[in-house]
Amino acid sequence: MTARRPPAARRGRDRKAETLFPAPGAARFRHGDAPSVAVIGGGIAGLAAATLLAERGALVTLYEKEDALGGRLAGRRTTLADGSGATMTRGFHAFFRQYYNLRGLLRRTDPALSRLTPLPDYPLRHSGGLTDSFARIPRTPPLSALGFVALSPTFGWRDLAAMDALAALPLLDVRVPDVYERFDDVTATAFLESVRFPEAAHHLAFEVFSRSFFADPREMSAAELQLMFHIYFLGSAEGLLFDVPTEPFPQALWDPLGTYLQRLGASVRTSTPVHEVRPRDGGGADVRTDAGTDRHQAVVLALDTGGLRQTVAASPDLGTADWRDGVAALRTAPPFLVSRLWLDRPVRDDRPGFLGTSGYGGLDNVSVLERYEGEASRWAARAGGSVVELHAYAVDPAAERKDVQNMLVDRLHQVYPETREARVVDARHEWRSDCPFFEVGSHHRRPTVRTPHAWLTLAGDAIRCDLPVALMERAATTGFLAANALLADRGVQGQVLWTVPRSGRSRLLRTLGGIAGDRPSP
């Protein structure tokens, strides 16, 4: 795909955001020529792939093993001890303005994105008492970095002068895949130490990024950390502020998309795990479920890390030995916990909707849901209380779960002391271990969207994508790329994609970044 500046009517705030155009082709399949396509996995990646394929006229069947769409952002109904109904999810997710392709997917059912609302700040607090804010920092680099230094209580001009400037220069010109060639064999911690960031800024400005991957920075690839810094800070003028859904994920996002898919003629089959994908002579595959075997001319595997490994292992005729080894080598990040508490009294009025934390012994952030989510707001108004959510990432697998849950509540009492007197009306705890882990040295063996079979593509946030995208945006982007590949092979035009700039934003930044190009990695 070629890059070009996006048209003004469609781009975000950043005039340097890049547009990637698909291969030319017909607008959609002609009647009678539409292929049958199986999309396996109903998370963000699968929904993106299924949506685009169905819009182009393909006969799409979406298979999802759970009883609802959304993947790791799905939700389930639960009844609280006071008789109230609530939707439990896996917790807070930030929909950054840089998520061009994810937001494009959501616009299918919400053109104005009215079901998202902005949070006014992204505060980051250290246990020592210092708090960083991004609300008043300019969004356009390099003013964003200079503004952060000018306003941050944890990172000042003396800290900037104490840094190893030469070691930090690669941050000014992050390029994909070059960044992996130079830094994938380096841990995020080793890179930070080589740059000599002050400890407080290390925790607040960088460990927050690495733990967004549910990973310990001592084991995570420095290339992924640098990519995050580029996407959110030095590479994009969209800034670090973000939006959140105004209702729980199913109601705000996935139920409308599921309805949209069905209106396009797609078959949406929830509660339908796929047990095997068996290639057919001449192309295509048989997809086996509990209900029987379906024949499809193309397949998109849009599964989480464990699901992809399991499906490929159960499908012995898929791919080549090297490709299968690459899939089998994918790892999941350590367990994480989301604890949601319904409290009988409110937190203070000045508590933000989201607060990142560091130095609190395992508590990574605190959300006050009634600040932005309608369902929580209605409960809080009725009960006179608050709905508070606590996250702990990269939990020691050997830890006792009850101890970790109790620890999070204790840390909440430290962060928001008024909660010490609150009674917990009810609580829900979501323990998961299904996020991809980008360990040191793993990039070269990760599977790509294209596979050894022309009729089979992969999508998801674990899939290698040589574009500056991460997390939910990587899932959406690879979903569209997976559909684009199948469409291009059949002469149909795919989806226009967007990314933040794929290198330093200015000639000066690129020149400075290039000075360190020949320096050995830390």
What keyword list fits this structure?
Polyamine Oxidase, Chain A, domain 2; 522 residues; 5-stranded parallel sheet; 16 helices; 7-stranded mixed sheet; 31% helix
Explain what this protein looks like in three dimensions.
The protein is α+β, with helices and mostly antiparallel strands. It has three domains: 20-71 and 248-330 and 438-499, FAD/NAD(P)-binding domain, CATH 3.50.50; 134-240; 334-432, Alpha-Beta Complex (Polyamine Oxidase, Chain A, domain 2). Helix content is 31%, strand content 20%. The protein is built from 16 helices and 23 strands. Strands 10-9-18-19-20-17-21 form a seven-stranded mixed beta sheet, sandwiched between helices.
Poorly predicted runs are 1-11
C-alpha-based Rg, rounded: 23 Å
User: By helix and strand content, what is the structural category?
Assistant: alpha+beta
Tertiary shape: globular
CATH class of the largest domain: Alpha Beta
Secondary-structure topology with pairs:
Layout: E1 2-4, E2 18-21, E3 36-40, H1 44-55, E4 59-63, E5 75-79, E6 85-89, E7 95-96, H2 100-106, E8 116-118, E9 124-126, E10 131-132, H3 143-151, H4 157-162, H5 165-168, H6 178-183, H7 188-195, H8 199-211, H9 222-234, E11 242-245, H10 249-263, E12 267-269, E13 274-279, E14 285-289, E15 292-296, E16 298-301, H11 305-313, H12 321-328, E17 336-343, E18 354-358, E19 365-368, H13 374-383, E20 386-392, H14 401-415, E21 424-432, E22 456-458, H15 471-489, E23 497-499, H16 507-515
Parallel strand pairs: 3-4, 3-16, 4-12, 9-18, 16-22
Antiparallel strand pairs: 1-2, 2-23, 5-6, 7-11, 8-11, 9-10, 13-14, 14-15, 17-20, 17-21, 18-19, 19-20
